[in-house]
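Retro notes (design track)

What went well: tokenization of the new backbones is finally stable.
What didn't: we kept losing track of which sequence belonged to which structure.
Fix going forward: every design gets posted as structure first, then sequence, in one message. First example under the new rule, 271 residues:
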């Protein structure tokens, strides 16, 4: 494996996103939403202004779960199938580069663009709020930014996998939208419905493990479980065992969600 080949492909993908201002647009969206939530999130209770980093992160978690998976899937759904439709895939493969180096380079370039926009967008908010935050609050916010990047990389990995399997861009975009609906909207409803219909007899003890099958839920638990007040509000303390909510363990699960789809995509693309 030639790392210089991977770096060349990754650099092209990253700078393509920089030049078309995609990164700037996403970063501005993150900054705008985060500032509005931080200062006006409690407007319904008649309070305006920054209250606490815990409540701000809790609100941002809900926002990120909707936005970042959608952005990652839109970013990566045509990574391979788009090149195939444009006829440029054969040209790339005619060069002295392996299929694994190509797919890994494209993924790393897209992941770098997504991570850059996420850190830039939310990092600017941290700069604005820094005068009102102590070191512990900044540490929590830094952890939130890192987990947001991991969430984006997990869904980007899923998008690249779809791009390898899809026959054309239309099918790939449809599968990407269906995947967003399933993980962000449907998955938790299915678990909740199973619990309610069976009176808690089905999946009760397995529920914490089943939540790990959804990277969006892993991201939510990773952020919420580290904050006592917010954790109680979400009710996670009653259903999720503390031994399973260790940050290092949840981070490993998230890394697994990044590596597994990318591994499947590499295997399928190499056949």
């Amino acid at each position: 494996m030639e790392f210089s080949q991977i770096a060349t492909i990754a650099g092209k993908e990253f700078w393509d996103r920089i030049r078309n201002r995609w990164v700037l647009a996403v970063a501005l969206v993150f900054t705008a939403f985060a500032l509005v939530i931080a200062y006006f999130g409690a407007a319904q209770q008649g309070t305006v202004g920054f209250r606490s980093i815990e409540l701000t992160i809790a609100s941002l978690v809900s926002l990120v779960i909707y936005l970042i998976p959608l952005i990652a899937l839109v970013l990566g759904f045509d990574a391979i199938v788009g090149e195939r439709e444009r006829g440029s895939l054969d040209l790339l493969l005619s060069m002295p580069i392996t299929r694994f180096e190509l797919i890994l380079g494209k993924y790393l370039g897209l992941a770098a663009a997504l991570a850059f926009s996420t850190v830039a967008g939310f990092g600017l908010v941290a700069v604005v709020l820094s005068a009102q935050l102590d070191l512990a609050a900044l540490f929590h916010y830094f952890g939130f930014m890192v987990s947001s990047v991991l969430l984006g990389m997990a869904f980007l990995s899923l998008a690249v996998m779809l791009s390898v399997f899809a026959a054309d861009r239309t099918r790939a975009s449809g599968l990407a939208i269906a995947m967003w609906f399933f993980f962000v909207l449907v998955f938790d409803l299915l678990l909740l419905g199973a619990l309610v219909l069976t009176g808690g007899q089905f999946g009760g003890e397995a529920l914490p493990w089943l939540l790990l099958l959804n990277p969006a839920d892993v991201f939510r638990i990773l952020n919420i479980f580290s904050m006592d007040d917010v954790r109680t509000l979400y009710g996670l303390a009653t259903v999720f065992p503390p031994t399973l909510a260790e940050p290092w363990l949840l981070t490993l699960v998230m890394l697994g969600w990044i590596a597994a789809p990318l591994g499947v995509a590499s295997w399928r693309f190499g056949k």
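Added context from the reviewer: Residues 164 and 268 are 7 Å apart (CA to CA).
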